[in-house]
Amino acid sequence: PTVYSLSAFAEGFPIGVAVSEWNIRNESISNIVIQHFTQVTAENIMKPEVLQPSEDSFDFEKSNELVNFAQTNGISIHGHTLVWHNQSPAWMQGCNDVLDCTNTMNNHITKVVQHFAGEVDSWDVVNEAFLQDGSYRGSADTNDGIAWVEKIGKDYISKAFITARAADTSAELYYNDYNLAFNDAKIDAVITLVEDMKAAETPIDGIAFQMHVTDTYPTIENISAAFQKAVDTGLKVKLSELDVRMNLSGEATALTEVIATAQKNRYAEIIEAYLAVVPKKQRGGISVWGVSDQDSWLSTNENNHPDWPLMFDGDLNQKPAILGFADAM
Ligand code: XIL
């Protein structure tokens, strides 16, 4: 059996996919996007290093192409990402003091969000601010990227959200991070941040779980409990970058039927948990991090093992995973 249109199964929330500029130029891939998905995220082309390669000089060429593609096909856009340590231009690193760095950050947010106002429906405003123990990510853990907390202070997050809201009052604003369903310290840090922001009336609409998971981790109990913590804040909950690695150990050399079936069940249990825990009005949607295994950023893992994290194989055929996703809805 094949799934005719994955998004047709979703009631009232977007089903999204990350795409590159060449994905939307490739007819076979863009047809899959149009057929199955109602939202796209730019896998790389809306990141700071692409949008503002040198100071105050913005390059919207590739991202405008994505906006055109989305608008032509009635697809919404989740913007990714305004403030991050990675994939930010080296020149940003050179900002001098709190005031200068705050201006640099705010100028980027303002120009980008204003440029896409009315086109980008929601933004990952801040990405990956916390470490696994719930502390703020400092320069020791930024891989030569920008440690915004050291440049500006802990309130860089609130400042970023306030600036984003001022630039487009109708875009939804998310905090996005990984391992939130894996790690109590990390989800708790995010919940504390969100509660503090709410108490200060700082705008924030949602918590986005990246959801780069494996066949076995985190457990479905951990996932459900973390979703529940996010739901309890009253904000929207989004799964923003879902993919499911099946070969972390590297024992497998090919995607067998056994692995594909296990992956189908894993996709299904995650979608089921989302629908069971997140009430309808708090569902920000579910996005997968790429169309096919061949394009996945995890198609080869750190140890050079092959992997198959997504719902279409390298020949763009549907995998059982998409059935698991559809059945769960
Ligand atoms: C990844 C892209 O998929 C890669 O193509 C790129 O080389 C590095 O970034 N968390 C995020 C995403 O928020 O932006 C990352 O995307 C994956 C992890």
UniProtKB/TrEMBL annotation:
Domain GH10: 1-328
Domain of life assignment: Bacteria
Similarity-based family: Belongs to the glycosyl hydrolase 10 (cellulase F) family.
Protein name: Beta-xylanase
Species of provenance: Psychromonas marina
